[in-house]
Specification:
Blueprint (H helix, E strand, L loop, with lengths): L7 H13 L13 H5 L14 H16 L5 H10 L1 E3 H6 L4 E2 L1 H8 L3 H9 L5 E5 L2 E7 H10 L1 H9 L5 H16 L4 H12 L3 H14 L15 H12 L4 H8 L3 H18 L8 H4 L4 H8 L20 H6 L7 H22 L9 H24 L1 H8 L9 H18 L8 H25 L4 H5 L8 H21 L4 H11 L10 H8 L3 H21 L9
Parallel strand pairs: 1-3
Antiparallel strand pairs: 2-4, 3-4
Helix pairs in contact: 1-3, 6-7, 10-11, 10-12, 11-12, 13-15, 14-15, 15-20, 19-20, 21-22, 22-23, 26-28, 27-28
Amino acid sequence: MHTDYLHPAVRGICELEIHGGMGDRPAQHAAPPEPALAERGATRTWSCTPVRAPIRRGCSAIHAVSGRQGGDTGPPLRLFGEDGPQTGAAAAANGETVFTVDQLARYLNVSTKTISRWRRQGLVGQRFVVDGRERVGFLKSSVDRFVAENRDRVCRGARFSQLTERERAGIVDRARRLARAGKWPAEVARCLAQETGRSIETIRYTLKRFDQENPHIAVFPHIYGPLELETKQKIFGQHHRGDSVEVLARRFHRTRACISRVLEEMRARWILDFPLDCVPNDEFAKIRSPEQERLILGPMPASDRPARTPRAPSGLPPYLKSLYEIPLLTPSQEVHLFRKMNYLKYKAAKLREQIDPRNPKRRLMNRIERYSREAVAVKNRIIRSNLRLVVSIAKRHVSETTPLFELISDGNISLIRAVDRFDYARGNKFSTYASWAIMKNYTRSLHDEHRHRDRFRTGLGELFGDTGDSRPDHIEQELAQKKRERQVESILDRLDERERTIVVQRFGLRRGQEPLTLKQVGANLGVTKERIRQLEARALDKLRQAAEEAKIDLPGPN
């Protein structure tokens, strides 16, 4: 039985009628279903044809299902006719001549490949059992009807002739000149098809075969064969920066369809790697109705506090003063935003499980990206409303060696992490949790900084006061170390949060932290060590590119 039915419902009807409903009469007395297939364009009833009841039922059901689903009834009806076994006796009883594929090709003076193509275009075949062997055959009445309806197509097929070596050489030479003039493969195929009178498929096949047999003098040396992952990443990156599909097709010598497939594949890869970790909540799995979902995803409730703009403390820079223009969140608004953000991530993660990397669906990926963008927007709203909390805590830790803006930058990172990890269902205020996270980070980072400075103090300096190390080599080392740390921090900003965490833990970039193994990092992040290895390799490639752009001298291999 055929496996290329487009509609599952049609395939089910065919299986039922062929294997279950056609046992009511012996096969040798069965009339072929071909007249019913031929009349599908003229009438929607099958009672006028000499077809037994199961085939009549099957044809009517196929027509109803295919029409309801917006599809053409021809292909499923053709497959249905071919799946019903007939016998040579039944054909002989009708006085019809039966052609095999080879016989029909000789009869119409075409190739067997042309016959296969015509079968997809409406030529109805049936399965006949001849000498105990099941074969596909064509009734002469079917052939005559197809020829009458497709006379021009049959005449073109009969006039078809194989390309001579001289014609092939001319096509290759002309294609090479067009390629040098800047034409891309699809344009070359269309142009040569018009000049030679051959089909576009013939031109494309001729050039493809020549390039495969002569790779050293190929017309389009890079168009055939699978693309490397690195090339696919370049295509995706350039399209993300604004290059159209047509421009990329010209640049990489590929068809627009190929470029579109690459973009969909790489988009699916990017979505599968996108961080969508949410704080789990049993409430999300219980949401069933649209009303419940609209309640969560609806607008934020209005504040019950009087509308007033808080006065910023004096002496603050303009950037810090602008933070006081953003109103604080009420407890109800805070719960709503955290619930909405985590539910959007939950929805996106559930949809991501349905992605098939080999055949990604654009509509599904659009929904995932929409949920992700909305979650990021809610997260940014929460962060902006709590930035002044970072400033108030940072001012308490300012010293001669730790300037305010450095503390604010460090505290903002702690705030972002706290937003991702806060569980609103426990009933605590976010400001309490965020303050604890920021102060804990300050305690750890300031302690590490003091311990680092103490390493460069001498015992003599402690006796005669806190004097700096006057030895030039130590000063140079300390300055160079600080410069390297700033450079590392600047290029680490090019990574996303998960990649940055992996690099920091793998190489022990934080003071007092020892490098961890792939297995240890994977255990911390909840993934396999092979996945950590892949993400680490990708992150290192990004860091190398960032270092080259920043003109940072990278140390050579040991």
